[in-house]
Design brief:
homotetramer; 416 residues; alpha/beta; 7-stranded mixed beta sheet; 16% strand; globular
Chain lengths: 416, 416, 416, 416
């Protein structure tokens, strides 16, 4: 392992909790170089909703590479991009009656967010943005300024300005009416709140601790934005592509945000890809006003297209995700009752699930026990106090049972 | 072509100059769906130094995918990353006696720049950065703030602060001694210049107009930074990986910058990948203080590793790049003399070459003529006045001859 | 009146509500050039707590000028400054067991605030400051950034950053526990709130609508700041110098803020003067690090000193202020009851009193009626909905009766 | 002296060089409390152009106070303000054919600058401002951001942004054509310079080291601003009111800036007062959009008006100032020649004069010697290397001779 320690920056993090060298992966399993299999309930932090090296996507990918399909194409027109656009239109936008234009903002989620913020500010002529407590939107300067985590913010090295955090749903456990503070500040011309260009929000906060906003809260936020002429940016980078059941995390709330950010699982196979969806009337950019080298990675378009075809031609995946999510919820409910003194809290929606412990040490200890038992999970939340489950949506019922059993054992080992 | 026009944002740009749909590509050629071949002197804006779908890299890539090597791995330890680190150490760092630690900052060049700026500010406790006239460093908020182009800056929607531009080499055609203004401001405690954390510079400015800094200017900048205790960030995203001849654009200047940004061709095959190289003493990050979903794309590690093995085990590519560059320079010299009234200016180093026209309309017209003759080139410079050549380093002498002939014809058609 | 309209900028405001030319003034009365007397319940927006041209101060002032006492002295040592310092120490600081060093920050309240903010940031190394809804701290860029009024903020022409507004006391009419939101954000490392250097607060918000914080709220704020190691800046520019009864508006809350801003009535006679009081351990400035031309206006020191001697050698003024304040409160209570449908709200403490109307038009109409009856009052609050009383503390009981009678008549004329 | 040391902040500076307690002052003399007379070649840092306690102004002032003229009047209409406006129009604006509207921005020069910057940004919708090396414009956040001195900038505690320094006249001793760098950056759309709302400049830099811009440089700057549609703000706070001869420092350059800042000697007697003069077409403010408590200090209007009547009804003061300035210049020329090894440099215009030494220690030592001989002078320049003369414009020829003799002796004592 010495070349990693010798050459790689101390900023590396996942390798600290899982100190093995991984080599191969298939479906819900990832294998270390000595052949040990790990059940992966982490799934690339949400980038592998269709599992590792999904065979449908793999076939399409290898075929494309074998036939010398163009690999790198910036924002040129390509057959691969056309296939993706047509399929995205047919499988995703049209059935949901969503009217968006598509920006290819760069390879990752932070690019999708940066493009969204730039456009919202350009359109409105305002600089200020409202974000939410415990939000995570990325590490580039614009995205970081709307991210909550203080350690990550501290890395900026410049004051992060232009964003004001508002309480996410349930931040006060119901002690305050939804949006009371936010709307009062907006309506009071003496409040000192800079008039916002946009609100940026996650349907479910992943890094923030698997905080699932109630659908009516999302609807209420959408209404508030409309009342006050504020653009709503929905960051679905981690929670989109079916993670919570429907393709978009906001579908069941009955809203259509002005701007939607997608990345992580949109490429399907784990290759970098991102989209910023924008209402047509917001498409005021000059050609090239936002650009980037890795906006047109055709292999990712190919796997993205295949994933849409295989998994989003019907509602089976959505139903399965919700059903499996309920199984986890049920197990978590049992655990909450089994350990009344531990004050566990079950959180989440669909296959984004969390179990909150009293502190980060406990949650970390459970993940460590699980790792030793062959299960990968990470913690999230401001103090790492939430055990976070993001398994592939394609995992089998047996794999889910296996994982939940390991979780129960691991918790038992820690809480005794 | 309607799905593009219907669904893709107006921000798209390359597709406007090259209104065909590309499908396949091999080496220096890219093919439209109707089978027309184009000689590619654009090469993914520098991301395809080894040509399209390079057969050595393709083989390694397909093998890796076929054997279910892990695809997406964040910053976990993987066999693919270990191979890359060992090979980068052996082929690149060790022979050049360069002592860097490696940050995997995210998938693209902007990520490499954002990480560099964050780290420089964190280490020094200062916010201000010096950039150069006509610099290009990326479109995310931190990278954009050190980029020169006013149209792109205008897209930010917030005032871009913390950066002060200084004149790049030859900005005044020698009318001012190098760094006279910069150093005077630094030495004068009343100058009003915020004390800078870092200087960020490109060895050759690509987007800015193929402005090749003299090596002694780069050396002088490095000396100045050392005298004033300022970190030097060398953005080699476009000009690294052999574009100017040696692996790094700064090698022949005899300097070793504090921080180096690499992306574009580092992955070899056009897949998103980026590195931020940092002097070991700068490695002060907390684990996870900078992160991102697409830091560990193993297929890119695989092709990156193979590219290093194939092309950087000896100095043949470097010699060939310099030789081909000289051929272009020679042709350009002829053109300058052939059209004395056009005031053409030949620019560049290695296989980053530019021919400056009196204005952007002329340069654009030449590129349009070339496209019609089957050659892809883009313009660069603040007004698009520079015809820019970034062919694959692997192009053959015949392809070079063919391309130069088309260029001569295209110029003749425009200048008459 | 034409020279005003011809030459003075449209930014002028008071002259619009009181379109007469004033000439002389004495005590609680100000006279227009045609000899009409106005009872002044505005008192220089709080700068004339001891009335116009107070005879004690006038004598000291004329004597000083007549004997050629130095007028302008920057921060040189002068006899006038020494007298002021000794008297301030003896009459104000020592009896209250307050341990402050004194900065002479420049001539006005905004200078006192700018110096406070600069020092708080310098001491803590943090940029962020917490301000409150409907705060008013001044019009220079630093002070404006912590001011609430959106019209005034809009005048900055640059985004106002580094400040986050929190709800002032009673902002939600008791619907939220004090500081619940603020403290939750501070304690949650994922909240996205930049760690604040300081909190800046007014004991009673004057411009914001005569919002009088409860003393226990101020105490709670002080406790919170201590718990979280945040500096507390008390802006007593308008509410200090006895306006609410005691010399400082915060005395009865039993707190001693880290930094206190004084101006307006500190000079006594209406001449520009300001102080920033700082805890001795905060006195980390370099000589000259903050300076200004008008820090040492000796005539203001002379009248300031005399005011302290005459009015702050015993507690008579404080008692009288409280008693007169109660008289106003009693009248306001009657008015609230007399006009139940008008939903009037009585506000304030000491001789800072407000009567809130349903909207700014009504409050403005009442002030207009009062002006026509010979009484000067202004409106305040975000929409000008509060009729604001800041009479000289030295007004007689008869003058108070006279003024209250005019107010009753004016309200009757408007509400009918 | 103990009460000063005990109670006054360490930020005090002038009292460190002149450790005596001053009491009275008259004309060019200021007296310590023990009766020692000092000849004052410092004159309130330019606030006492008409000398201490000028008898004409004193009489008008005392008369006004005695007759209970209104003292403090915010921006109400007053007889005192009307007299001032009429006189300023008659004596200053009309004869010079200057068409300005007048903003009363607050009591000091920093307020005049803050108002100027706010207005320029509001009118243009741009944030960026160009300032000059070694500029001094004040200590409030907006003014400080365009000030050069690094120690004073460091006091801000927040990054000072939105300003980019350009070289003031002679910054490179003629090695660069005037404005070459500035104009190149403006004309190059790739330069990275944010498009500026305004340029702010002093006609002669006082704090910066008595740097007198050539009149043709000022004219060139004005031309450049017109060419590029940039507002020109002339900060005449220290150099206006006749300091360089004519009332405005820019008159002889034949320009009329868009915005002019006046303070210091505009009040005449040393009382705080400031003006921002704006071209009528810039008067776009909302009523009250910029305000402040000390905008209408009538005693200052009274002495300001009297000063205009007495000193600006003819051109005697201007001629006398120029003549006395030439006398100083002549003496300085002799000194430069007398001490060839000291490399003294004579600087300035009118009665703003400087003698530059090799370093701040020498200049400081000369000022110390002068103080001991009864002459007050301060140093200026980035390292305090310039001995700065700002005597009252009203000093007699004898006083000038006396002062120059002390200077010669003091220099002799230091340089030997």
């Amino acid at each position: 392992m010495s070349i990693f320690e010798e050459l790689e920056s101390e900023v590396r993090s996942y390798s600290r909790g899982w100190p093995v060298v991984f080599d191969r992966a298939q479906g819900s399993r990832i294998y270390s170089e000595d052949g040990k299999a790990y059940l992966d309930f982490f799934a690339g932090a949400g980038a592998l909703n269709y599992g590792h090296n999904n065979p449908y996507l793999k076939k399409a990918l290898v075929d494309y590479i074998q036939r010398d399909g163009v690999t790198h194409a910036l924002d040129m027109f390509t057959v691969a991009k056309r296939d993706f656009l047509e399929t995205f239109q047919e499988k995703i936008l049209a059935p949901r009656e969503l009217d968006y234009k598509i920006v290819f903002p760069g390879p990752g989620g932070a690019n999708a967010v940066e493009a969204a913020l730039k456009l919202a500010r350009k359109v409105t002529g305002k600089e200020s943005v409202i974000n939410f407590t415990n939000a995570f939107h990325g590490m580039t300067l614009g995205a970081l300024s709307v991210t909550g985590n203080s350690m990550k913010r501290g890395g900026a090295g410049v004051p992060l300005v232009h964003a004001t955090p508002m309480p996410y749903d349930k931040y006060f456990d119901g002690a305050m009416p939804d949006f009371m503070y936010f709307e009062k500040l907006l309506e009071d011309s003496g409040s000192g709140l800079n008039e916002p260009a946009a609100v940026i929000v996650e349907g479910v906060q992943g890094e923030g601790g698997i905080n699932a906003a109630r659908l009516e809260w999302l609807k209420g936020l959408d209404d508030l934005c409309k009342r006050h002429n504020i653009l709503l940016i929905l960051d679905d980078v981690q929670m989109g592509c079916g993670r919570t059941g429907p393709f978009f995390s906001f579908e069941d709330a009955g809203i259509s945000p002005d701007i939607v950010c997608l990345s992580k699982s949109i490429g399907g196979y784990g290759l970098p890809m991102a989209l910023t969806l924008i209402k047509p009337e917001l498409d005021v950019w000059e050609p090239g006003e936002h650009n980037g080298t890795f906006r047109g990675i055709s292999p990712a378009f190919v796997t993205a297209t295949e994933a849409l075809r295989v998994y989003w031609s019907d509602d089976e995946l959505e139903k399965s995700t919700k059903a499996k999510g309920e199984r986890i919820a049920s197990t978590f409910k049992d655990l909450v009752e089994r350990y009344p003194e531990a004050n566990l809290v079950a959180k989440g929606r669909g296959l984004a699930r969390g179990l909150e412990f009293a502190n980060g040490d406990l949650a970390g200890a459970v993940c460590k026990e699980a790792f030793e038992r062959g299960l990968l999970m990470e913690t999230s939340g401001p103090d790492g106090e939430v055990m976070k489950l993001l398994p592939p949506l394609t995992l089998t019922d047996e794999e889910l049972s296996e994982g939940l059993a390991i979780i129960e054992e691991s918790i038992a080992a820690v809480l005794k």
